[in-house]
Amino acid sequence: MPTKPLSELKPGEKGKIVKVAGRGSIHRRLLDMGLVSGSEVDVVRVAPLGDPMQVRIKGYNLTLRKEEAANIQVEVTQMAEPLMPLAMARPGERVSVVDIRAGRGLARKLADMGLLPGTEIKVVNSMGHGPIIIDLRGSRLALGHGVAQKIMVTGV
C-alpha cells in the first residue's frame, strides 16, 4: 500500500505508522511521544490554517506541528468520511460532529453547549429560514444558519 506523510491526512482518517524520519532531537522526541512504527494513529482535527494538528495514538491525544508530522510516514487504513456543514443535514438525520471550523470564542461557546467532535446529534428541523434545531442528549438547541455552517458533521 502506498504511504504518505501524516501531515497530509485529514480529520477522520486513520493510518498505521510505517516510518519515523527526522534528525537528532526531533526524531527522539517523536519516538518518546509514542510515534513508533506499527502504531495506529487517528487524525482528530487540524487547525484552520493547517498547523497544528491533533492526533490520537495509543489512547491519548497529541498535538503536532505540520513540520513534525511531515516526518512520519503512514499507510492509510481508513479514509475520512465525507463531511458536510450541519446546515445541510436533513430533519430526522443523525450526524456526528467531526470538526468545529470557528474562531476561538464561538468554538468555546459551542463546546460549553456540548457540541464537541465525536458528539452525536439528531437534526429536528432545518427547513425554512428559521434556526436549525438539534437534539443533543435529550435537549433541544437552536442554532443560526451561519453557526451551523461552521459545524462539520458526518452521517452516523
Question: What's this model, at a glance?
Answer:
The chain has 156 residues and is α+β, with helices and mostly antiparallel strands. 17% of the residues lie in helices and 41% in strands. The chain folds into two domains: 3-78, SH3 type barrels (Roll); 84-155, Ferrous iron transport protein A (FeoA) (SH3 type barrels, Roll).
Q: Indicate the percent of residues in helices.
A: 10-25%
**Largest sheet, if any?**
6 strands, antiparallel
**Order of H and E elements:** EEHEEEHEEEHEEEHE
Backbone structural class: alpha+beta
Note poorly predicted spans: none
What is the total tally of β strands?
12
Would you tell me the overall average pLDDT?
86
**Separation of the first and last Cα atoms:** 28 Å
CATH architecture of the largest domain: Roll
- Structural Rg: 18 Å
Number of domains: 2
- Can you tell me the CATH superfamily of the largest domain? Ferrous iron transport protein A (FeoA)
Count of DSSP H/I helices: 4
CATH-defined topology of the largest domain = SH3 type barrels
Text of the CATH class of the largest domain? Mainly Beta
Roughly what fraction of the amino acids lie in strands? Answer: 35-45%
Large-scale geometry: elongated
User: What strand order characterises the main sheet?
Assistant: 1-6-2-3-4-5
